[in-house]
UniProtKB/TrEMBL annotation:
Lineage: unclassified sequences, metagenomes, ecological metagenomes
Residues passing through the membrane, by range: none
One Pfam family from the record: CARDB
Ranges where the CARDB domain occurs: 54-137
Protein name: CARDB domain-containing protein
């Protein structure tokens, strides 16, 4: 909870300072400092109890009570474990402001380094004080006990069209005798056609044993093109089996070669031009690939369809540098398969199929030279150009898994494509900006910046941290790389050209087909002054339309000091003689100075409208003069007051 006295004093002081400004160019019409009492649900910690069940520590950081009907969504290694309300998890009374509660879920985990995602209020049904920190990612390991872990190994049909599936145990203990689990078959993501209890036979861990299951009553294949999804879920908490990955094996009947569906995409001239692999043989387009490499890609595409986008971890693990040709080729083919899978099913709102994307942008997704830097003398590859920390992942599904939690409608579209025929691109870009504001920070010391720059962790390790720490980037250019790296896994390439070569492209966010979503400097998202806490500035206001971007940055009007202008913004500490000399001549900002001034002014204008906690903290720790200096601008050479 914020110190109330400091809040009131800060708001009053800033209100006085703001009232003195007669010509403030505000962007939103509203009164500063008028905050409603709202709840703010957040996850503070995720851990495993001694039995292996996931336990969540949640808190209400807002100023109003939170109803127990608030929902929480849980994913493990990308597998949706369902949604729970606080009351489902044992909460009996509303969560009061400042209250922390520990709640035990029914999800049992076994194994090492399991990726867990918790999404609070996934549909944004609750109006919260802070909407940007609703996703919590953690990496958990069960060191408490050995457990069996079931997966759905196969889904098929016999000669009479009766569906069956097979269970396998990849855990560290045998399935207990007489274990009961519940199985469901879902047709076309919409209809539960079978829901029954099965007694799993004893399965030894990591063996070649399978348990063959035929639904009761039997399920006969529907018309051609029917897709069946198999889910296995626990009957009760007493069933000591990890079922977190036995969730969503899919199969379309009749069973055909899934690769055939991608053949048309791969035959497109744009794709053939962009699909390049660099090796000792030079740069080879898809038509020049060896047949073995084409077969490897086909195998991955078949796996993706069956496992709903998941690929097994890269054999090289999370290693980033000095990758051999075989490891690098596998990582490259995983990325190509992921991009083709997204393009085929249109899961994300790129708005443009591959054939409509211009070649430079398409190469970002399909050309190995955008994924690796290659040293032909050593025949070694470095992921993400060898830059650290990496903003790409050896396994493309890991960042995509996080993105489907940040952008829940992507997951909804996977489940209900008829209900969600298209997605809003603006929402995608803004929600990702929200996540960066909530979970990414700039190093606050030279030592921390150097440590971030030497980090050998992959993007997957950065996103899913054992200690759930914030993501630390050395500078704003690194934040842009992270933003672009994440969007890459949604088939959304960044614009990398500009009509003005004098713009700072290392920090700019722009899109080739969405000119009204441009950010001059992504550093705005991690500016402590605008941190998303308290009366936070909406992330959407950090993006400029095409016209705004042109007026402020691409071709701004330069501010000048006219001769003998008594209102010229000249340093008050300069001598009277120097002031008279400068006022006697007309001087103007340079283009760079004007862009820097306009960039800062847009933030200051927003701070006149919103009162985030960063501004309050500045007031609480400083003086009234400090806040007035912040809100009125620098006493620069030519640049005017804000």
């Amino acid at each position: 909870m914020k110190p109330l006295l400091c809040l009131v004093f800060g708001l009053l002081s800033m209100s006085e300072a703001l009232s003195a400004q007669n010509d403030i160019d505000v962007l939103v019409s509203r009164s500063p400092g008028q905050l409603l009492a709202l709840p703010d649900l957040a996850v503070q910690q995720v851990r495993l109890d001694p039995e292996g069940f996931i336990v969540l520590q949640v808190t209400n950081g807002g100023t109003a009570a939170l109803d127990v009907s608030a929902e929480i969504s849980l994913l493990v290694d990308g597998h949706d474990q369902g949604r729970f309300t606080l009351s489902d998890l044992g909460a009996e009374a509303p969560l009061q402001p400042g209250q922390v509660a520990e709640i035990k879920t029914r999800v049992l985990l076994a194994g090492q380094q399991r990726r867990v995602l918790v999404v609070v209020d996934p549909d944004n049904r609750i109006k919260e004080e802070n909407e940007v920190h609703n996703v919590f990612a953690a990496l958990l390991t069960n060191d408490h006990r050995d457990l069996p872990r079931l997966v759905i190994d196969e889904v098929g049909a016999n000669s009479e069209g009766v569906i069956f599936f097979a269970l396998a145990n990849i855990g560290t203990a045998a399935v207990p005798v007489g274990s009961l689990v519940r199985a469901r078959l879902i047709l076309n993501d919409s209809f539960v056609v079978s829901d029954f209890i099965i007694r799993v036979k004893v399965l030894e861990p990591m063996s070649h044993q399978r348990a063959w299951v035929f639904p009761e009553p039997p399920v006969i294949i529907m018309p051609p093109g029917s897709e069946f999804q198999v889910q296995v879920i626990p009957v009760s908490d007493e069933v000591a089996i990890d079922l977190s990955t036995a969730r969503d094996r899919k199969q379309v009947f009749p069973q055909t070669d899934e690769f055939l569906a991608y053949a048309t995409i791969l035959e497109g001239p744009e794709v053939l031009t962009a699909l390049n692999w660099q090796s000792t043989a030079g740069v080879q387009s898809y038509g020049e690939w060896p047949e073995a490499m084409k077969n490897e890609l086909a195998s991955r595409l078949r796996t993706l369809t069956a496992w709903n986008g998941r690929l097994p971890p890269a054999a090289s693990g999370d290693r980033l540098r000095n990758l051999g040709p075989t490891d690098a080729r596998h990582i490259y083919l995983d990325h190509v398969a992921h991009a083709l899978w997204l393009n085929r099913y249109r899961f994300v709102p790129t708005d443009e199929p591959f054939e409509a994307i211009q070649l430079p942008q398409l190469q970002q997704l399909l050309d190995s030279r955008w994924l690796f830097s290659y040293n032909p003398s050593t025949n070694r590859y470095h992921l993400d150009g060898g830059r650290l920390p990496a903003t790409l992942s050896p396994n493309p599904y890991v960042p995509y898994e996080l993105l489907t939690a940040i952008l829940p409608r992507v997951k909804d579209y996977e489940r209900f494509p008829v209900i969600y025929p298209s997605l809003d691109f603006t929402s995608l870009v803004v929600r990702l900006a929200d996540w960066i504001r909530a979970y990414v920070v700039i190093a606050d010391s030279a030592g921390e910046a150097r440590a971030a720059g030497r980090s050998e962790r992959s993007l997957g390790q950065v996103l899913f941290d054992v200690e759930a720490k914030p993501v630390v980037m050395a500078d704003a250019a690194g934040v842009r790389r992270l933003y672009g790296g994440l969007l890459r896994y949604l088939n959304t390439p960044l614009q990398f050209g500009d009509t003005s070569t004098r713009l700072n492209l290392s920090r700019k966010i722009g899109f080739a087909y969405h000119q009204d979503l441009t950010m001059y400097d992504v550093g705005r998202l991690v500016d402590p002054l605008a941190a998303p806490s308290g009366d936070a500035i909406p992330s959407a206001l950090f993006f400029d339309t095409e016209q705004e971007y042109s007026l402020r940055f691409a071709a701004p009007n330069l501010t000048c000091v006219e001769p003998n202008d008594s209102h010229a913004n000249i340093d008050a500490f300069a001598s009277w003689r120097l002031q008279q000399t400068e006022r006697a001549r007309r001087r103007c900002n340079s283009l760079g100075q004007q862009r820097a001034f306009n960039y800062r002014q847009t933030l200051i204008n927003l701070l006149h409208v919103f009162v985030p906690d960063g501004l309050l903290i500045r007031r609480c720790r400083g003086t009234r003069a400090d806040i007035e200096a912040l809100l009125t601008g620098p006493r620069g050479y030519v640049t005017p007051f804000y």
